[in-house]
Amino acid sequence: MKRNISLYAISFLILLSSLFSPLYIISVFADSEDMTTICHSDFEENGFDEWYVTGNGQLEIDTENAYSGSTSIRTVGRIDSWNGPSLTTTDYIMPGHVYSFEGYVFHQSDKEETISWSSKWINSDGTTTFNNIASEIVAPNTWTKLSGTVETPLNVASSDIYFESENANLIFNIDNIYILGESPAITTVAENKAVEYNFDFEEDTENWLQRGDVTLSRTDAYSSSGKYSLYVSGRTETWNGPSVNINAIHRNVSYMYTAYIMYTGSELSDSHTFLLQLQYEYNGNIVYDVVSRKEIQKNSWSKISGEYTLPEGAKNVVFYIQTEQVNVDFATVDDLMPFYIDKIDIEDSTLMNRKKAIKSAITISGVIVITALIALITILIIRKKKKTKEALDLASRDAMTKALNRNTYQEKILFLENNPEKCKSLHIAVCDVNFLKHLNDNYGHKEGDSAIIRCAGALMLAASKKGDVYRTGGDEFVCISSISLKKEITQELALEAQKYQGYPFSVAVGFATYNENLDGNSPDIKEIIARADKDMYLNKESIKKKYPEFARK
Question: Which fold would CATH assign to domain 406-546?
Answer without folding.
Answer: Alpha-Beta Plaits (3.30.70)
